[in-house]
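Issue 218. Parser rejects a valid record. Input:
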Amino acid sequence: MKNLTFTVSMSDLGLEIRLPSTAFLRIFDQNNARFDLQNDELFFLLKKGQIKMIANDLELIPKLEFDKVVILNMAAYDLELEYLTQYLVNLAEEAGIILRDKAEPIKIPSNIEKACAISADEFLTALTAFGIKLEKKKAFSPKAQHRWKKGLSEVEFFVNRSDSKATIIWEKSNQLVIKAGAKIAESGGMKSDGTPGLAYRFTQTLREEQKANWDAKTFTTTEDIVLKSVNEVGHFLYFAGTNSWLQLVDKEGRTIHELSVV
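Output the parser choked on:
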């Protein structure tokens, strides 16, 4: 990112940031979807400084806890709204941010992707001055301790990845249930040289133990599957490879880590 000069004005409606390109941003505190959006605008929803959603259609907003809204008016950029929105979604996911209720993904032509990068560099630079970044707010120690409590047994957690989708209930401290109908990843867990890694072997062991409960042709579970830990859930569903405490998210966008960390 670069040095940037922009102007800021403040009103009862929040902050307005005018950029050199004449594009502008609005930042305001809000915890509901009752705000206006123009044809050339997209929005970010944030909770405690962490981006939770990026979209250009208010109807996509789910039941989600958020406390701040950023709106970008991008008319000055001579880009299609859908391409810039998808570019930002891609950036966020590459940074490890878990986003809620995205539009159907679209492929961005390489020349347009370059134009998106130039435009994004301007307004993302401005947003950093207000502590808003397309990055995970903080990582937590792998040694973080988690504790089950009875209230968690009433919460549905969801995995919503391109290779796996599932609903999970943490019923007991050592019992997590993957509900029937889950989509499990068809491949994964390989080393860089293409040979099976530990994650692959552990996943295959779990799946072999549960072979009566999932269809090997459709990679869909046919019965509820009971596993002992979040780690086992991550392996069974998508060969792990990432921190599963951050992959299981409730309907309000809270991770299973947030709700159980000690």
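Fixed in the parser; the record now loads. The chain has a mean pLDDT of 91.
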